[in-house]
C-alpha cells in the first residue's frame, strides 16, 4: 500500500525555478531509499537525483549544480529544487522508492519498486 504522489510541476520560462514535492504514504523513511527520475516521450526514464548514504546525494551530470534533492522526515516528504531550468529539462518527473537494506546507494530505475504518478515540467525558451 505504499503510495507516492508528486506535485509542483508546471510551465516556466528558461532560467526560472520550480520545487517538486513527493508525499510518501504507507512507508517509513528509515526503511526506504528515495530518488527522482524523469522521462520524455520516446526516451527511457533516467535518474535525476537520489540519496545515497546519510545526507549524501548523487545527481545526473545534466542537472548537477542546478538541482537539489532534499527530504523532510517529519513530513514524510521528498523534494527536488530545480533552479536555472532549461528547455531540455522538460519531462515528466517521478519520485521513486525502494526498500532500504542496510544503506542507500546509487541505483537504476529497475531497482526502485514504488513510483509516483509523475508531475509534468515544461520549460520554454
Task: Describe this structure as you would to a colleague.
With 125 residues, the protein is mainly β. The protein has strands at 3-7, 10-13, 18-25, 32-39, 46-51, 57-59, 67-72, 77-82, 91-99, 114-115, 119-124. Strands 2, 4, 5, 6, 9, 10 and 11 form a 7-stranded mixed β-sheet that branches. Strands 1-3-8-7 form a 4-stranded antiparallel β-sheet, with no helix packed on it. The chain is globular and about 45 Å long. The termini are far apart.
Radius of gyration: 14 Å
Oligomeric state of this protein? single chain
- Class by alpha and beta content: mainly beta
How many beta-strand runs? Answer: 11
| Helix percent band | under 10%
Q: Outline the low-pLDDT stretches.
A: none
What string, H for helix and E for strand, traces the elements in order?
A: EEEEEEEEEEE
| Overall pLDDT | 93
Helices, by number, come to 0
Largest sheet: 7 strands, mixed
Structure keywords:
mainly beta; four-stranded antiparallel β-sheet; 11 strands; 50% strand
Short note summarizing the structure:
By secondary structure, this protein is an all-beta fold. About 0% of the residues lie in helices and about 50% in strands.
Write the layout of secondary structure elements.
Layout: E1 3-7, E2 10-13, E3 18-25, E4 32-39, E5 46-51, E6 57-59, E7 67-72, E8 77-82, E9 91-99, E10 114-115, E11 119-124
Parallel strand pairs: 2-11
Antiparallel strand pairs: 1-3, 3-8, 4-5, 4-9, 5-6, 7-8, 9-10, 9-11
